[in-house]
Specification:
Blueprint: H1 4-16, H2 21-28, E1 32-36, E2 39-43, H3 47-56, H4 58-69, E3 74-78, H5 88-101, H6 105-117, H7 130-156
Length: 157
């Protein structure tokens, strides 16, 4: 079985043959990848590159992975390093942070004010058991979703 790094290099070779050299050097050369089960995390060097790859090259990357591995994989574009211990909870936190980053500055200030007033459990140390952490994160996600919906309603009014 090929190593993850070797597979990613094969994927990059496939892409290199199908795009111009400037396109490859600009958008793909600095990328890394992490495979977990059926999911590939494509790690871009910055947010702009991540967004560009996802918008303009998603189908090419999927095709390259399929042609290289003969597997239909889910792709997640990200800008952070993915550790070997990436968990479901970590993935959820990353998605929440991305959602928060998409809010306007005013919306972010309101959200953080709400979290501070509600004494978010993440301002306190969290026990190390993964199940406790996931449970707390899920509760926090639901709370944030409700608060964002309230904020969205008050902003529209």
């Amino acid at each position: 079985m090929e190593t993850e790094k070797s597979l990613w290099n094969d994927v990059l070779d496939y892409i290199r043959e199908r795009v111009s050299r400037p396109t490859f050097d600009t958008w793909f050369k600095g990328c890394k990848a992490k495979k977990e089960g059926e999911k590939w995390f494509i790690i871009a060097p910055n947010h702009f590159a991540r967004d560009w790859l996802e918008i303009h090259h998603l189908s090419l990357v999927k095709e390259a992975i399929y042609e290289t591995t003969n597997e239909m994989s889910e792709l997640v574009f990200t800008v952070r390093e993915i550790s070997a211990e990436l968990t479901y909870a970590d993935d959820k936190v990353a998605k929440i942070l991305d959602d928060i980053n998409e809010l306007s500055l005013t919306e972010q200030e309101k959200l953080f004010g709400l979290l501070k007033r509600n004494n978010s459990p993440f301002s306190q140390p969290v026990r190390s058991e993964e199940s406790v952490r996931v449970n707390q994160l899920e509760m926090e996600v639901e709370k944030i979703k409700r608060q964002l919906a309230e904020l969205n309603g008050s902003i529209k009014n």
